[in-house]
Inverse folding.
C-alpha cells in the first residue's frame, strides 16, 4: 500500500514538473488521469485519500491542459464517493472521514475556480446545487444524530461548518439553490437543530434523502 501511495505522489510530481510538451504531446497525461480515476474508484481508503489530495494539487495547476482533464474525469468520482457516504449514512473510521472531507474540499475548489474564471451563471448555480445536495444529504436529523458513531457525527458537524462558511462566499448561487429545493433547505435546518439538540432529543428514525438530480457534466468546464 505504501508503494502505491508513493506512485501516485511521484506521478503528481512528474506531471507538475515535466516539460509541457512532454505531457501534452504524449499519452502520459491520459494514462495518469485514468490511474487516479481507478484509485478513487477502487483503491483502499488510505490510498484513495492520497490520490484525492494529489488531484486537488493538480487541479490547482495554472496549466489548463493539466487541470482540466483531472476536473472532467475525477470530480464526478468524488461526487460519487460522497453520494455513497450519504446513502449508507455511515463513516467507519478516521480515514473514511478524511476522504469525505478532502472530497468536499475539492468541490469547494471547483466553486472558487468557477468564480475566478468568471463562470458565474448557470455553471456556478449547477455546481452549487451539487455541492449543497452532497453536504446536506450527509446530515442527520435530531432523532438519529445521537445514534451515529463519532466519525459520522464529526462529518455532520463539518458539513454544517462548510455550508455556513461557503454560503456567504457565493450568496446568490446559494440562495438560488435553497429557494429551488425546499426539501434541502428543510433538511439543512433540521441538521443545524440536531447539532444543538443531540443530547436532549430521542433518537429513532432514519432520515429520508431529498430527491435531487446530482449528475453534472464536467466536460465543458473552463
Amino acid at each position: 500500500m505504501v508503494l502505491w501511495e508513493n506512485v501516485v505522489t511521484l506521478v503528481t510530481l512528474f506531471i507538475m514538473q515535466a516539460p509541457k510538451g512532454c505531457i501534452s504531446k504524449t499519452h502520459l497525461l491520459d494514462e495518469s488521469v485514468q490511474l487516479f480515476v481507478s484509485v478513487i474508484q477502487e483503491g483502499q481508503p488510505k490510498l484513495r485519500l492520497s490520490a484525492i489530495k494529489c488531484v486537488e494539487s493538480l487541479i490547482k495547476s495554472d496549466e489548463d491542459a493539466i487541470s482540466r482533464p483531472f476536473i472532467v474525469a475525477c470530480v464526478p468520482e468524488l461526487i460519487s464517493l460522497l453520494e455513497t457516504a450519504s446513502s449508507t449514512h455511515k463513516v467507519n473510521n478516521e480515514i473514511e472521514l478524511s476522504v469525505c472531507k478532502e472530497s468536499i474540499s475539492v468541490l469547494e475548489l471547483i466553486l472558487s475556480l468557477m468564480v475566478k474564471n468568471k463562470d458565474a451563471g448557470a455553471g456556478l448555480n449547477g455546481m452549487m446545487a451539487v455541492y449543497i445536495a452532497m453536504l446536506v444529504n450527509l446530515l442527520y436529523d435530531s432523532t438519529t444524530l445521537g445514534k451515529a458513531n463519532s466519525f459520522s457525527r464529526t462529518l455532520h458537524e463539518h458539513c454544517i461548518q462548510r455550508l455556513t462558511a461557503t454560503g456567504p462566499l457565493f450568496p446568490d448561487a446559494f440562495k438560488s439553490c435553497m429557494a429551488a429545493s425546499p426539501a434541502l433547505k428543510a433538511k439543512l435546518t433540521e441538521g443545524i437543530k440536531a447539532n444543538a439538540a443531540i443530547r436532549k432529543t430521542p433518537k429513532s428514525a432514519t432520515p429520508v434523502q431529498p430527491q435531487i438530480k446530482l449528475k453534472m457534466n464536467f466536460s465543458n468546464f473552463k
In short: The CA atoms of residues 108 and 166 lie 8 Å apart.
